[in-house]
């Protein structure tokens, strides 16, 4: 009997994790990021967007009580498992994966500090500057002359996501229900 009860709980928790992570991934894969806002449609560009959506989700749960901290940790674990799986799919050898994972983890946590600081201060220009540094680190920003506008659109979208997630009940999120707004032309530069 205990085995059956624990098995069901584990399956329910897995379903919640999959539902939440699926929404985070879907939010990160919105075509507008890559087509109109010119985020590179490369493994690293997709890592940037997935990291960004994960960070905004984690920011939403930060400091909450109850199941939220556990869910936040499980989703971070899921995120890094997914990143590792992607590296292996790209053909990175077993020897090279740990080295790359360390680098990507440093990248994620470095971005966490910069983005969370901007979110905490409600500072959209600082967020846009951090996005510019991180999305195009080798080009010193977006490659075209209007790139500053694209980073502003992305920053405005992230601010809108933060507001949308803040309005969603913790109980719903802990039950696996979350909704990210679509990226739209309404994400205007401030």
Automatic annotation (TrEMBL):
Domain of life: Bacteria
Limits of the Ubiquinol-cytochrome c chaperone domain: 36-180
Lineage: Bacteria, Pseudomonadati, Pseudomonadota, Alphaproteobacteria, Hyphomicrobiales
Protein name: Ubiquinol-cytochrome C chaperone
Pfam families: Ubiq_cyt_C_chap
Species the sequence originates in: Manganibacter manganicus
Family the UniProt entry places it in: Belongs to the UPF0174 family.
Coiled coil ranges: none
InterPro entries named among the record's database cross-references: Ubiq_cyt_c_chap (IPR021150), Ubiqinol_cyt_c_chaperone_CPB3 (IPR007129), Ubq_cyt-c_CBP3-rel (IPR014569)
